[in-house]
TrEMBL record:
Keywords: DNA-binding, Iron, Metal-binding, Repressor, Transcription, Transcription regulation, Zinc. Transmembrane segments: none annotated. Its cofactor is Zn(2+); Mn(2+); Fe(2+). This is Ferric uptake regulator. Binds 1 zinc ion per subunit. Binds 1 Mn(2+) or Fe(2+) ion per subunit. Zn(2+) binds at residues 101, 104, 137, 140. Fe cation binds at residues 92, 94. Gene3D superfamilies: 3.30.1490.190, Winged helix-like DNA-binding domain superfamily/Winged helix DNA-binding domain (1.10.10.10). The lineage of its organism: Bacteria, Pseudomonadati, Bacteroidota, Sphingobacteriia, Sphingobacteriales. Belongs to the Fur family. GO terms for molecular function: DNA-binding transcription factor activity; transcription cis-regulatory region binding; zinc ion binding. GO terms for biological process: negative regulation of DNA-templated transcription; regulation of secondary metabolite biosynthetic process.
Amino acid sequence: MIQTSDTKFEALLEKHHLKKTGPRLKVLSMLAAKNVATSQPDLESVLDDIDRVTLYRILNAFEEKGIIHKVFDLNGTANYAMCSSNCEENHHHDEHLHFNCTICNNVYCLDELNLPALNLPNGFKPTGFTLYATGVCPKCNKLAAKKAS
């Protein structure tokens, strides 16, 4: 049986003991469709039928349940991206590189990179970490090359 996005998102909400509401399904659909992390203001501009407080509560609930994770852009704005299936309630496994493009300001989650082991001094017990890189994304590199030629 082929699972549509809606049934996949409904199953995700059910797994995390969240009610299957229209606004929650819309937010999941928007975040899953993006290849970059997305800020609350960006979501508000697209989801104009969901008020700011409701969207804030949805994002908070999703983050607490391990459905999405929060990453900050170069301006300090919180952006949200879908978590991997390894994330759990109150314990994220989003230990991947977050790439901030200095031109378009998009934040990319680069899950496919193998990161080195984190060797901390005795007495330190990590519960997670965030790794950022800044530079120019492929899209902006391509646009710059077109302008230069």
